[in-house]
Amino acid sequence: MAERCGDVQRDRRPGTRIISRVLRIDLNGDVGESFGPYTIGDDEAMLRYLTSANVACGFHGGDPSVMRRTVALAVARGVAIGAHPGFADLEGFGRRNIQMGVREVEDLVTYQIGALAGVAAAAEARLHHVKPHGALYGMAARYRDLADAVARAVVAVDSTLILFGLAGSCLIEAGSAVGLRTAAEVFADRAYRVDGSLVPRDQPGAVIDDPKAVVNRALRIVQDGTIGAVSGEVIELRGDTICLHGDTHGAGGLAARLRSGFEGAGIRVLAIEMGG
Question: Tens of pLDDT along 85-135?
Fold first, then answer.
């Protein structure tokens, strides 16, 4: 992991489609993270309002039965289905950095995409996108060799899938390099540093849980292409899709408020169209 990507807001690559300029946004959320007897989040409530669903693939969360139920809910609601692969870390919910070789990461991601693709096929549906989870997402956003491993896994399984990644990050670069369509992702419920990276979850104020603040931040990102960093500076921030975390308290109600806020402001909320 020697090569580290540059500052997010200064390192966007040509070709990233800026949907926010035409007042259109995809609203994605992390779902299917329950497993066994443990319930995490309210997927049914979330899926009433999302346009894209990132379904856990059994490593950081989820299990085969939860995957099946979540895919069925997404199909019934007309929500685009994406794989949400993460580190094999149930205890840490996939949010602990794990050191792995790039080939191991590639295999890990390939396995999880393939598993969810099979579940989707059984429901007469298909995958729409891939979004890495937690620590894998953060590490691949910063380190190009890990991002390349993720991108290789995606394109090997299905080159028409869209790769979701932090706006301006290594994931966007790596996906574009192998010919994948990419979607630059932004967050309304996470604090940003001045370089455009997310404030780590273990730091105070990293997660924003006030619903009004989250909605206002989301509208600002889409309408103005800016956000306030924790330093107080205003940074440029544009993206194709905005994320809502399924394990956030009251996520279902927050999803409803976000969807209503967007539509009330004349912003179209639609899944990103696939190529190929």
Answer: 999 999 999 899 999 999 999 999 999 999 999 999 999 999 999 999 999
Per-residue H/E/C for 178-206 = CCCEEEEEEECCECECCCCCECCCCCCCC
Q: What angle do CA 153, 71, 94 make, to 5 degrees?
A: 55
- Overall number of domains in the chain: 1
41 DSSP β-pair partners? none
- Beta-sheet strands, E only, within the chain: 24-31, 52-56, 80-84, 129-130, 162-166, 181-187, 226-228, 234-236, 241-244, 268-269
Segment 149-168, tens digit of pLDDT: 999 999 999 999 999 999 99
Answer whether 4's CB lies under 8 Å from 25's CB. Answer: no
- Return the amino acid letter for 243: C
Write out the residue range of the structural domain in which residue 109 sits: 19-187+239-246+265-269
| Residue 110 is assigned to a structural domain of this protein | yes
